Amino acid sequence: MYDLKPVRLSARSSYVKFDDRSEHALSPIRHLARLRCPVVVAYGERDSPEFQRQAREWAEALRAAGRLHALVVGEGLNHFELPETLADARSPLARAALSLVGST
Fold first, then answer.
1. Is the pLDDT of residue 7 over 60?
2. What separation in angstroms does the CA of 50 have from each of 10, 28, 38, 41?
3. If we measure between CA atoms, which residue out of 32, 97, 89 comes closest to residue 71?
4. Is the separation of the CB atoms in 78 and 46 below 8 Å?
5. How far apart are alpha carbons 67 and 100 in whole angstroms?
6. What's the CA gap between 81 and 77, in Å, rounded?
């Protein structure tokens, strides 16, 4: 989650207690100017629409800030399965991660 505002507006607000200050402090999309490195954004095709939307918006904000290295969509995967693809150097996510260190 890159913007916690939707969490505050959802049913989760009954047990996830964010005030304006913590929402701002914990939402990466509000701190783009602090980034000093390229970023790989990834989401799974089988993630919830909200996870997908936030990942795309985060990637677009990073692109506008000149910090997006790659946007990877895990075909047929959810956000639990996608990180497992890092173990396969041929996977799109692993290739994107390795290209950050010049290993591809």
1. yes
2. 11, 16, 24, 15
3. 97
4. yes
5. 12
6. 6
Supply the DSSP string of 15-76, one letter for each residue: TS---HHHHHHT-GGG-GGG--S-EEEEEETTS-HHHHHHHHHHHHHHHHTT-EEEEEEETT
Burial pattern 24-57, b for ≥16 Cβ within 10 A else e, equals eeebbbbeeeeeeeebbbbbbebbeeebbebbee
Whole-number pLDDT of residue 81:
97
- Residue whose C-alpha is closest to residue 44's, from 36, 34, 55: 55
| Domain residue ranges in the chain | 1-30, 36-100
For the chain, the residue count is 104
* Residue 81 CA neighbour count, 13 Å, CB half: 11
pLDDT tens track for 49-72: 999 999 999 999 999 999 999 999
- Reduce the DSSP state of residue 100 to 3 states and report it: helix
